[in-house]
Amino acid sequence: MKSLKSACLGDSLHIINIEVSLSPALPAIEIVGLAGTTIKESTTRVKAALNNLQKSCEHAKLPAMRVSVNLSPSDVKKNGSHFDLAIALLIMLQKIHFDNDFFVFGELGLDGNVRSNAELFSILLFLSTKAKNIRVLVPQDIALKAAMIPNLEVFSICNLEEAFRFFCDSDFAKTCAVTATHPLFEHTLNIAGQVFVPNTNYELNFSDIKGQDRAKRACIISAAGMHNILFEGSPGCGKSMSAKRLRYILPPQSLDEVLLASAYASLNSQDSDFSALRPYRAPHHTSTRSSIFGGGSQMAKIGEVALANGGVLFFDELPHFGKQILESMREPLEDNCINISRVNSKVRYETKFLFVSAMNPCACGNAFSQSLNCRCNERDIARYKSAISAPLIDRIDLYVAMSEISANDASSLTSQQMHKQVMQAFNAQILRKQNQLNGKLDERDIARFCQIDNASEQVLNKAISNYHLTQRGINKTLKVARTIADLSSCEQIQKEHIIEALSFRMR
Protein backbone atom coordinates (compact mmCIF):
# COMPACT_ATOMS: atom_id res chain seq x y z
CA MET A 1 0.00 0.00 0.00
CA LYS A 2 1.22 3.49 -0.92
CA SER A 3 -0.08 6.84 0.28
CA LEU A 4 0.08 10.57 -0.45
CA LYS A 5 -1.58 13.59 1.13
CA SER A 6 -4.08 16.05 -0.27
CA ALA A 7 -6.81 18.32 1.12
CA CYS A 8 -10.40 19.38 0.53
CA LEU A 9 -12.44 22.38 1.56
CA GLY A 10 -15.93 22.09 3.06
CA ASP A 11 -17.04 24.08 6.07
CA SER A 12 -13.33 24.03 6.94
CA LEU A 13 -10.10 22.60 5.53
CA HIS A 14 -9.62 18.84 5.90
CA ILE A 15 -6.28 17.12 5.29
CA ILE A 16 -6.93 13.93 3.34
CA ASN A 17 -4.69 10.88 3.27
CA ILE A 18 -4.98 9.02 -0.05
CA GLU A 19 -4.18 5.30 0.15
CA VAL A 20 -3.99 2.91 -2.80
CA SER A 21 -3.58 -0.87 -2.66
CA LEU A 22 -3.78 -3.67 -5.22
CA SER A 23 -5.58 -6.95 -4.66
CA PRO A 24 -6.16 -10.02 -6.84
CA ALA A 25 -9.65 -9.58 -8.24
CA LEU A 26 -11.39 -8.45 -11.38
CA PRO A 27 -9.61 -5.33 -12.77
CA ALA A 28 -11.33 -2.14 -11.60
CA ILE A 29 -10.70 1.10 -9.73
CA GLU A 30 -12.82 1.45 -6.60
CA ILE A 31 -12.86 4.69 -4.56
CA VAL A 32 -14.18 4.69 -0.98
CA GLY A 33 -14.34 7.30 1.79
CA LEU A 34 -17.43 9.48 1.15
CA ALA A 35 -16.17 10.53 -2.28
CA GLY A 36 -18.32 12.99 -4.23
CA THR A 37 -19.30 12.82 -7.89
CA THR A 38 -16.22 14.68 -9.16
CA ILE A 39 -13.97 12.19 -7.37
CA LYS A 40 -15.94 9.19 -8.66
CA GLU A 41 -15.36 10.56 -12.17
CA SER A 42 -11.62 10.45 -11.51
CA THR A 43 -11.55 6.79 -12.52
CA THR A 44 -12.30 7.68 -16.14
CA ARG A 45 -9.72 10.47 -16.27
CA VAL A 46 -7.06 8.37 -14.53
CA LYS A 47 -7.57 5.38 -16.86
CA ALA A 48 -7.37 7.56 -19.99
CA ALA A 49 -4.25 9.40 -18.77
CA LEU A 50 -2.46 6.15 -17.88
CA ASN A 51 -3.37 4.56 -21.23
CA ASN A 52 -1.89 7.53 -23.11
CA LEU A 53 1.31 7.35 -21.06
CA GLN A 54 1.95 3.58 -21.07
CA LYS A 55 3.78 3.69 -24.44
CA SER A 56 6.55 5.83 -22.97
CA CYS A 57 6.42 4.58 -19.36
CA GLU A 58 5.92 0.95 -18.39
CA HIS A 59 4.81 1.92 -14.89
CA ALA A 60 1.74 3.59 -16.38
CA LYS A 61 0.24 0.25 -17.41
CA LEU A 62 -2.84 -0.51 -15.37
CA PRO A 63 -2.33 -3.78 -13.44
CA ALA A 64 -4.75 -6.65 -13.98
CA MET A 65 -5.89 -6.32 -10.39
CA ARG A 66 -8.46 -4.49 -8.27
CA VAL A 67 -7.22 -0.98 -7.38
CA SER A 68 -8.69 0.15 -4.07
CA VAL A 69 -8.49 3.87 -3.29
CA ASN A 70 -9.25 4.98 0.25
CA LEU A 71 -9.73 8.64 1.19
CA SER A 72 -9.34 9.07 4.93
CA PRO A 73 -10.78 10.20 7.25
CA SER A 74 -13.81 8.38 5.91
CA ASP A 75 -16.37 10.47 7.81
CA VAL A 76 -15.56 13.69 5.90
CA LYS A 77 -17.41 14.42 2.66
CA LYS A 78 -14.94 15.01 -0.14
CA ASN A 79 -15.26 16.64 -3.51
CA GLY A 80 -13.01 18.10 -6.17
CA SER A 81 -11.16 17.03 -9.28
CA HIS A 82 -7.75 17.82 -7.73
CA PHE A 83 -7.42 14.27 -6.35
CA ASP A 84 -6.80 12.88 -9.87
CA LEU A 85 -3.04 13.33 -9.91
CA ALA A 86 -2.42 11.69 -6.52
CA ILE A 87 -4.55 8.64 -7.42
CA ALA A 88 -2.77 8.14 -10.76
CA LEU A 89 0.67 8.56 -9.15
CA LEU A 90 -0.05 6.03 -6.42
CA ILE A 91 -1.01 3.44 -9.06
CA MET A 92 2.25 4.08 -10.93
CA LEU A 93 4.43 4.10 -7.79
CA GLN A 94 3.22 0.82 -6.24
CA LYS A 95 6.58 -0.93 -6.75
CA ILE A 96 8.79 2.12 -6.19
CA HIS A 97 10.04 3.58 -2.90
CA PHE A 98 9.47 7.35 -2.73
CA ASP A 99 9.18 10.27 -0.34
CA ASN A 100 5.48 10.56 0.48
CA ASP A 101 5.73 13.69 2.62
CA PHE A 102 4.07 15.76 -0.11
CA PHE A 103 0.67 17.27 -0.69
CA VAL A 104 -0.32 16.53 -4.28
CA PHE A 105 -2.97 18.45 -6.22
CA GLY A 106 -4.02 18.42 -9.85
CA GLU A 107 -6.80 17.56 -12.26
CA LEU A 108 -5.85 15.17 -15.06
CA GLY A 109 -6.77 15.67 -18.67
CA LEU A 110 -7.40 12.64 -20.85
CA ASP A 111 -4.03 13.27 -22.54
CA GLY A 112 -2.16 13.23 -19.23
CA ASN A 113 -1.75 16.98 -18.83
CA VAL A 114 -2.26 18.39 -15.35
CA ARG A 115 -4.23 21.55 -14.57
CA SER A 116 -5.69 23.31 -11.55
CA ASN A 117 -9.32 23.90 -10.69
CA ALA A 118 -11.09 27.00 -9.42
CA GLU A 119 -11.03 25.94 -5.75
CA LEU A 120 -7.39 24.93 -5.55
CA PHE A 121 -5.94 28.32 -4.56
CA SER A 122 -8.30 28.59 -1.58
CA ILE A 123 -7.28 25.10 -0.46
CA LEU A 124 -3.59 26.00 -0.65
CA LEU A 125 -4.10 29.25 1.24
CA PHE A 126 -5.97 27.60 4.10
CA LEU A 127 -3.49 24.70 4.07
CA SER A 128 -0.65 27.15 4.77
CA THR A 129 -2.26 28.01 8.11
CA LYS A 130 -2.12 24.39 9.31
CA ALA A 131 1.65 23.98 9.56
CA LYS A 132 4.98 25.42 8.43
CA ASN A 133 7.21 24.36 5.54
CA ILE A 134 4.57 22.27 3.78
CA ARG A 135 5.77 20.74 0.51
CA VAL A 136 3.18 20.77 -2.28
CA LEU A 137 3.18 19.52 -5.87
CA VAL A 138 0.85 21.58 -8.05
CA PRO A 139 0.10 22.17 -11.76
CA GLN A 140 2.29 24.73 -13.50
CA ASP A 141 -0.63 27.08 -14.25
CA ILE A 142 -1.07 27.92 -10.53
CA ALA A 143 2.56 27.62 -9.43
CA LEU A 144 3.44 31.34 -9.39
CA LYS A 145 0.32 32.20 -7.39
CA ALA A 146 0.94 29.35 -4.96
CA ALA A 147 4.57 30.40 -4.47
CA MET A 148 3.41 33.68 -2.92
CA ILE A 149 1.61 31.85 -0.10
CA PRO A 150 3.68 31.71 3.10
CA ASN A 151 4.67 28.36 4.67
CA LEU A 152 4.50 26.53 1.34
CA GLU A 153 7.43 24.98 -0.53
CA VAL A 154 6.03 24.75 -4.04
CA PHE A 155 7.00 22.34 -6.83
CA SER A 156 5.31 22.36 -10.23
CA ILE A 157 4.81 19.93 -13.10
CA CYS A 158 3.00 20.06 -16.44
CA ASN A 159 1.83 16.50 -16.94
CA LEU A 160 1.60 13.06 -15.36
CA GLU A 161 4.95 11.90 -16.79
CA GLU A 162 6.77 14.80 -15.13
CA ALA A 163 4.97 14.07 -11.86
CA PHE A 164 6.19 10.45 -11.98
CA ARG A 165 9.77 11.59 -12.67
CA PHE A 166 9.47 14.02 -9.75
CA PHE A 167 9.13 11.14 -7.27
CA CYS A 168 11.67 8.88 -8.98
CA ASP A 169 14.46 11.31 -9.90
CA SER A 170 15.73 13.59 -7.11
CA ASP A 171 17.76 15.71 -9.55
CA PHE A 172 14.68 16.37 -11.66
CA ALA A 173 12.67 17.14 -8.52
CA LYS A 174 15.07 19.97 -7.67
CA THR A 175 14.41 21.59 -11.07
CA CYS A 176 10.67 21.63 -10.32
CA ALA A 177 11.06 23.97 -7.35
CA VAL A 178 9.32 27.32 -7.94
CA THR A 179 11.54 30.24 -6.99
CA ALA A 180 10.21 32.94 -9.32
CA THR A 181 8.09 35.83 -8.04
CA HIS A 182 4.66 36.64 -9.37
CA PRO A 183 4.91 39.69 -11.69
CA LEU A 184 2.46 41.64 -9.51
CA PHE A 185 4.91 41.61 -6.59
CA GLU A 186 7.98 42.72 -8.53
CA HIS A 187 7.19 46.39 -7.88
CA THR A 188 5.88 46.85 -4.36
CA LEU A 189 5.54 49.76 -1.95
CA ASN A 190 7.23 49.66 1.46
CA ILE A 191 5.74 51.79 4.25
CA ALA A 192 7.05 51.43 7.81
CA GLY A 193 8.32 47.94 7.06
CA GLN A 194 5.03 46.76 5.54
CA VAL A 195 4.74 45.70 1.90
CA PHE A 196 1.84 46.89 -0.26
CA VAL A 197 0.88 46.41 -3.90
CA PRO A 198 0.31 49.80 -5.56
CA ASN A 199 -2.38 50.36 -8.17
CA THR A 200 -1.58 52.38 -11.29
CA ASN A 201 -4.72 51.43 -13.24
CA TYR A 202 -7.12 54.34 -13.79
CA GLU A 203 -9.27 52.78 -16.49
CA LEU A 204 -12.32 54.60 -15.14
CA ASN A 205 -11.34 58.16 -14.28
CA PHE A 206 -13.06 60.79 -12.15
CA SER A 207 -12.18 63.31 -14.86
CA ASP A 208 -15.17 61.89 -16.78
CA ILE A 209 -17.48 63.41 -14.15
CA LYS A 210 -18.21 67.10 -14.70
CA GLY A 211 -18.62 69.29 -11.63
CA GLN A 212 -19.69 67.52 -8.39
CA ASP A 213 -16.73 68.87 -6.41
CA ARG A 214 -18.37 68.07 -3.08
CA ALA A 215 -19.06 64.50 -4.17
CA LYS A 216 -15.44 64.08 -5.23
CA ARG A 217 -14.28 65.43 -1.88
CA ALA A 218 -16.51 62.86 -0.17
CA CYS A 219 -15.04 60.14 -2.40
CA ILE A 220 -11.51 61.09 -1.34
CA ILE A 221 -12.48 60.90 2.34
CA SER A 222 -14.35 57.64 1.78
CA ALA A 223 -11.47 55.99 -0.07
CA ALA A 224 -8.77 57.22 2.33
CA GLY A 225 -10.43 55.68 5.39
CA MET A 226 -12.74 53.04 3.83
CA HIS A 227 -15.82 54.94 5.03
CA ASN A 228 -19.30 53.86 3.90
CA ILE A 229 -20.94 56.42 1.62
CA LEU A 230 -24.42 57.17 0.27
CA PHE A 231 -25.05 59.23 -2.88
CA GLU A 232 -28.48 60.82 -3.35
CA GLY A 233 -29.42 62.75 -6.46
CA SER A 234 -31.46 62.96 -9.63
CA PRO A 235 -30.95 60.40 -12.41
CA GLY A 236 -27.86 61.13 -14.49
CA CYS A 237 -26.05 63.32 -11.97
CA GLY A 238 -23.11 60.89 -11.62
CA LYS A 239 -23.95 58.66 -8.63
CA SER A 240 -23.13 55.35 -10.32
CA MET A 241 -20.14 56.84 -12.13
CA SER A 242 -18.65 57.96 -8.82
CA ALA A 243 -19.27 54.57 -7.23
CA LYS A 244 -17.61 52.67 -10.09
CA ARG A 245 -14.53 54.93 -9.95
CA LEU A 246 -13.98 54.67 -6.20
CA ARG A 247 -12.27 51.33 -6.67
CA TYR A 248 -9.43 52.95 -8.62
CA ILE A 249 -8.43 55.41 -5.89
CA LEU A 250 -8.56 53.03 -2.91
CA PRO A 251 -5.42 52.50 -0.82
CA PRO A 252 -2.99 49.77 -1.92
CA GLN A 253 -3.49 46.20 -0.73
CA SER A 254 -1.17 44.29 1.55
CA LEU A 255 0.08 40.84 0.54
CA ASP A 256 -2.44 39.18 2.88
CA GLU A 257 -5.31 41.17 1.34
CA VAL A 258 -4.31 40.13 -2.19
CA LEU A 259 -4.15 36.48 -1.14
CA LEU A 260 -7.49 36.57 0.68
CA ALA A 261 -9.24 38.32 -2.22
CA SER A 262 -7.99 35.64 -4.59
CA ALA A 263 -9.00 32.89 -2.15
CA TYR A 264 -12.55 34.23 -1.84
CA ALA A 265 -12.81 34.53 -5.62
CA SER A 266 -11.65 30.91 -5.83
CA LEU A 267 -14.45 29.87 -3.46
CA ASN A 268 -16.85 31.46 -5.95
CA SER A 269 -15.45 29.20 -8.70
CA GLN A 270 -13.63 32.13 -10.26
CA ASP A 271 -10.13 31.27 -11.43
CA SER A 272 -8.74 34.79 -11.43
CA ASP A 273 -5.15 35.98 -11.19
CA PHE A 274 -3.78 38.35 -8.57
CA SER A 275 -4.83 41.95 -9.08
CA ALA A 276 -3.65 45.27 -7.70
CA LEU A 277 -7.25 46.48 -7.94
CA ARG A 278 -9.44 45.79 -4.96
CA PRO A 279 -12.63 43.72 -5.51
CA TYR A 280 -15.78 45.40 -6.78
CA ARG A 281 -19.23 43.80 -6.44
CA ALA A 282 -22.49 45.36 -7.57
CA PRO A 283 -25.43 42.94 -7.10
CA HIS A 284 -28.77 43.82 -8.68
CA HIS A 285 -31.63 44.77 -6.38
CA THR A 286 -33.49 41.62 -7.47
CA SER A 287 -30.75 39.39 -6.02
CA THR A 288 -31.75 36.88 -3.36
CA ARG A 289 -30.57 36.96 0.25
CA SER A 290 -28.54 33.78 -0.29
CA SER A 291 -26.66 35.25 -3.25
CA ILE A 292 -25.80 38.43 -1.33
CA PHE A 293 -24.99 36.97 2.10
CA GLY A 294 -24.11 33.39 1.15
CA GLY A 295 -25.71 30.12 2.11
CA GLY A 296 -27.50 27.30 0.34
CA SER A 297 -29.40 24.20 1.38
CA GLN A 298 -26.33 22.00 1.87
CA MET A 299 -23.06 23.94 2.15
CA ALA A 300 -22.70 27.55 3.26
CA LYS A 301 -21.49 29.09 0.01
CA ILE A 302 -19.83 32.49 -0.16
CA GLY A 303 -21.97 35.53 -1.05
CA GLU A 304 -21.49 39.02 -2.45
CA VAL A 305 -20.73 40.68 0.92
CA ALA A 306 -17.75 38.35 1.47
CA LEU A 307 -16.58 38.55 -2.15
CA ALA A 308 -16.41 42.34 -1.71
CA ASN A 309 -14.08 41.99 1.31
CA GLY A 310 -11.26 44.51 1.08
CA GLY A 311 -12.97 46.31 -1.79
CA VAL A 312 -16.27 47.93 -2.77
CA LEU A 313 -19.83 46.64 -2.38
CA PHE A 314 -22.18 48.84 -4.41
CA PHE A 315 -25.95 48.89 -3.96
CA ASP A 316 -27.50 50.98 -6.72
CA GLU A 317 -31.12 52.05 -6.26
CA LEU A 318 -30.85 51.32 -2.53
CA PRO A 319 -34.61 51.62 -1.64
CA HIS A 320 -35.47 48.94 -4.22
CA PHE A 321 -33.54 46.26 -2.32
CA GLY A 322 -35.72 44.06 -0.15
CA LYS A 323 -36.37 45.12 3.43
CA GLN A 324 -34.88 41.88 4.76
CA ILE A 325 -31.73 42.32 2.70
CA LEU A 326 -31.15 45.86 3.91
CA GLU A 327 -31.74 44.93 7.55
CA SER A 328 -29.41 41.95 7.19
CA MET A 329 -26.66 44.33 6.09
CA ARG A 330 -26.41 45.69 9.62
CA GLU A 331 -24.29 42.81 10.98
CA PRO A 332 -21.56 42.73 8.28
CA LEU A 333 -21.35 46.55 8.35
CA GLU A 334 -20.97 46.66 12.13
CA ASP A 335 -18.90 43.53 12.88
CA ASN A 336 -16.89 43.40 9.62
CA CYS A 337 -17.69 39.69 9.38
CA ILE A 338 -20.60 37.41 8.63
CA ASN A 339 -21.41 34.04 10.17
CA ILE A 340 -23.43 31.65 8.02
CA SER A 341 -24.92 28.68 9.87
CA ARG A 342 -26.49 25.69 8.21
CA VAL A 343 -27.26 22.19 9.51
CA ASN A 344 -24.30 20.75 7.63
CA SER A 345 -21.83 23.63 7.87
CA LYS A 346 -20.95 26.81 9.73
CA VAL A 347 -18.67 29.34 8.03
CA ARG A 348 -17.29 32.76 8.94
CA TYR A 349 -16.23 35.25 6.25
CA GLU A 350 -14.58 38.65 6.63
CA THR A 351 -16.60 41.63 5.31
CA LYS A 352 -14.26 44.63 5.64
CA PHE A 353 -15.61 46.30 2.53
CA LEU A 354 -16.44 49.86 1.56
CA PHE A 355 -20.23 50.01 1.33
CA VAL A 356 -21.33 52.38 -1.43
CA SER A 357 -25.00 53.05 -2.11
CA ALA A 358 -26.98 55.32 -4.40
CA MET A 359 -30.60 56.41 -4.49
CA ASN A 360 -32.94 58.93 -6.07
CA PRO A 361 -34.47 61.64 -3.85
CA CYS A 362 -37.95 60.31 -4.62
CA ALA A 363 -39.73 57.66 -6.67
CA CYS A 364 -39.86 59.79 -9.83
CA GLY A 365 -36.33 61.10 -9.26
CA ASN A 366 -37.06 64.80 -9.82
CA ALA A 367 -37.20 66.10 -6.23
CA PHE A 368 -33.76 67.76 -6.56
CA SER A 369 -34.37 68.97 -10.11
CA GLN A 370 -34.65 72.69 -10.87
CA SER A 371 -36.12 72.20 -14.32
CA LEU A 372 -38.39 69.15 -13.95
CA ASN A 373 -41.48 68.89 -11.79
CA CYS A 374 -41.62 66.24 -9.08
CA ARG A 375 -44.78 64.09 -9.29
CA CYS A 376 -44.44 62.75 -5.74
CA ASN A 377 -46.17 64.05 -2.63
CA GLU A 378 -44.69 63.82 0.86
CA ARG A 379 -46.40 60.49 1.49
CA ASP A 380 -44.92 59.01 -1.71
CA ILE A 381 -41.42 60.17 -0.75
CA ALA A 382 -41.80 58.77 2.77
CA ARG A 383 -42.99 55.43 1.36
CA TYR A 384 -40.08 55.37 -1.10
CA LYS A 385 -37.49 55.88 1.66
CA SER A 386 -39.21 53.73 4.27
CA ALA A 387 -37.18 50.66 3.28
CA ILE A 388 -34.04 52.35 4.66
CA SER A 389 -34.19 52.15 8.45
CA ALA A 390 -32.52 54.54 10.88
CA PRO A 391 -30.10 51.86 12.19
CA LEU A 392 -28.87 51.27 8.63
CA ILE A 393 -28.49 55.00 7.98
CA ASP A 394 -26.53 55.23 11.24
CA ARG A 395 -23.96 52.82 9.78
CA ILE A 396 -23.27 55.09 6.80
CA ASP A 397 -20.38 57.48 7.42
CA LEU A 398 -20.84 59.94 4.56
CA TYR A 399 -23.94 61.29 2.86
CA VAL A 400 -23.76 63.38 -0.32
CA ALA A 401 -26.68 65.16 -1.95
CA MET A 402 -25.63 65.55 -5.59
CA SER A 403 -26.92 68.38 -7.72
CA GLU A 404 -27.87 68.32 -11.38
CA ILE A 405 -25.23 68.72 -14.05
CA SER A 406 -25.23 72.16 -15.70
CA ALA A 407 -23.75 73.30 -18.99
CA ASN A 408 -21.10 75.31 -17.16
CA ASP A 409 -19.74 72.33 -15.20
CA ALA A 410 -16.27 71.20 -16.17
CA SER A 411 -13.96 68.36 -15.22
CA SER A 412 -11.89 69.14 -12.15
CA LEU A 413 -9.99 66.46 -10.27
CA THR A 414 -8.64 63.36 -11.98
CA SER A 415 -8.37 59.95 -10.37
CA GLN A 416 -4.57 60.33 -10.26
CA GLN A 417 -4.86 63.56 -8.27
CA MET A 418 -7.45 62.08 -5.92
CA HIS A 419 -5.39 58.92 -5.42
CA LYS A 420 -2.39 61.06 -4.45
CA GLN A 421 -4.43 62.61 -1.64
CA VAL A 422 -5.67 59.18 -0.56
CA MET A 423 -2.10 57.90 -0.38
CA GLN A 424 -1.13 60.84 1.85
CA ALA A 425 -3.82 59.86 4.39
CA PHE A 426 -3.00 56.17 4.00
CA ASN A 427 0.66 56.77 4.82
CA ALA A 428 -0.36 58.66 7.96
CA GLN A 429 -2.51 55.74 9.15
CA ILE A 430 0.23 53.16 8.55
CA LEU A 431 2.88 55.29 10.26
CA ARG A 432 0.54 55.59 13.27
CA LYS A 433 0.73 51.76 13.41
CA GLN A 434 -3.01 51.26 13.02
CA ASN A 435 -4.12 47.69 12.40
CA GLN A 436 -7.12 48.92 10.41
CA LEU A 437 -7.94 51.95 8.30
CA ASN A 438 -9.91 54.70 10.03
CA GLY A 439 -13.33 53.53 8.86
CA LYS A 440 -12.86 50.05 10.42
CA LEU A 441 -11.45 51.10 13.83
CA ASP A 442 -13.12 49.58 16.89
CA GLU A 443 -14.03 51.53 20.04
CA ARG A 444 -10.68 50.86 21.72
CA ASP A 445 -8.76 52.15 18.69
CA ILE A 446 -11.05 55.19 18.42
CA ALA A 447 -10.11 56.21 21.95
CA ARG A 448 -6.44 55.77 21.07
CA PHE A 449 -6.18 57.37 17.63
CA CYS A 450 -9.08 59.83 17.46
CA GLN A 451 -8.04 62.37 20.09
CA ILE A 452 -9.76 65.79 19.91
CA ASP A 453 -9.00 69.18 21.48
CA ASN A 454 -11.38 71.23 23.65
CA ALA A 455 -12.78 73.31 20.79
CA SER A 456 -13.56 70.16 18.80
CA GLU A 457 -15.19 68.55 21.81
CA GLN A 458 -17.50 71.56 22.28
CA VAL A 459 -18.61 71.38 18.64
CA LEU A 460 -19.22 67.63 18.91
CA ASN A 461 -21.23 67.97 22.14
CA LYS A 462 -23.41 70.63 20.52
CA ALA A 463 -23.99 68.35 17.53
CA ILE A 464 -24.96 65.48 19.84
CA SER A 465 -27.77 67.54 21.33
CA ASN A 466 -28.88 69.25 18.10
CA TYR A 467 -28.70 66.24 15.77
CA HIS A 468 -29.49 63.55 18.38
CA LEU A 469 -26.38 61.53 17.49
CA THR A 470 -26.21 57.96 18.76
CA GLN A 471 -22.99 56.54 20.17
CA ARG A 472 -22.42 54.89 16.81
CA GLY A 473 -22.98 58.26 15.11
CA ILE A 474 -20.42 59.88 17.42
CA ASN A 475 -17.87 57.20 16.63
CA LYS A 476 -18.54 57.54 12.90
CA THR A 477 -18.04 61.30 13.11
CA LEU A 478 -14.75 60.88 14.98
CA LYS A 479 -13.46 58.35 12.44
CA VAL A 480 -14.37 60.57 9.48
CA ALA A 481 -12.77 63.56 11.22
CA ARG A 482 -9.63 61.47 11.76
CA THR A 483 -9.42 60.83 8.01
CA ILE A 484 -10.01 64.50 7.20
CA ALA A 485 -7.20 65.41 9.61
CA ASP A 486 -4.92 62.89 7.86
CA LEU A 487 -5.74 64.49 4.51
CA SER A 488 -4.71 67.83 6.02
CA SER A 489 -1.51 66.32 7.53
CA CYS A 490 -2.68 67.13 11.08
CA GLU A 491 -1.68 64.86 13.94
CA GLN A 492 -4.66 65.87 16.09
CA ILE A 493 -8.29 66.28 15.09
CA GLN A 494 -9.23 69.95 15.07
CA LYS A 495 -12.47 71.92 15.11
CA GLU A 496 -12.71 72.34 11.33
CA HIS A 497 -12.27 68.59 10.83
CA ILE A 498 -15.21 67.86 13.14
CA ILE A 499 -17.35 70.46 11.37
CA GLU A 500 -16.62 68.97 7.93
CA ALA A 501 -17.30 65.46 9.21
CA LEU A 502 -20.66 66.60 10.62
CA SER A 503 -21.53 68.24 7.31
CA PHE A 504 -21.51 64.78 5.71
CA ARG A 505 -23.89 63.24 8.29
CA MET A 506 -27.35 62.43 7.03
CA ARG A 507 -30.02 64.21 9.07
SSE arrangement:
Layout: E1 2-9, E2 13-23, E3 28-32, H1 37-40, H2 42-53, E4 66-72, H3 84-92, E5 103-104, E6 107-108, E7 114-115, H4 120-127, E8 134-139, H5 143-147, E9 152-157, H6 160-168, H7 170-175, E10 189-191, E11 194-197, H8 213-225, E12 229-233, H9 239-246, E13 253-254, H10 255-267, E14 280-281, H11 289-293, H12 304-307, E15 312-315, H13 323-328, H14 330-335, E16 337-341, E17 346-350, E18 354-359, H15 378-385, H16 390-394, E19 398-402, H17 415-431, H18 443-449, H19 454-467, H20 471-487, H21 495-503
Parallel strand pairs: 3-4, 5-8, 8-9, 12-18, 12-19, 14-15, 15-18
Antiparallel strand pairs: 1-2, 2-4, 6-7, 10-11, 11-13, 16-17
What does this structure look like?
There is one protein chain. By secondary structure, the chain is of the alpha/beta class. It has 3 domains: 2-180, 2-Layer Sandwich (Ribosomal Protein S5, domain 2); 194-431, P-loop containing nucleotide triphosphate hydrolases (Rossmann fold); 441-507, Helicase, Ruva Protein, domain 3 (Orthogonal Bundle), CATH 1.10.8. Helix content is 36%, strand content 18%. The strands form 6 sheets. The protein has a 5-stranded parallel sheet with strand order 14-15-18-12-19. A 4-stranded mixed sheet has the order 1-2-4-3. Strands 5-8-9 form a 3-stranded parallel sheet. A hairpin with a 3-residue loop joins β1 (2-9) and β2 (13-23). It starts with a strand and ends with a helix. The mean pLDDT is 92.
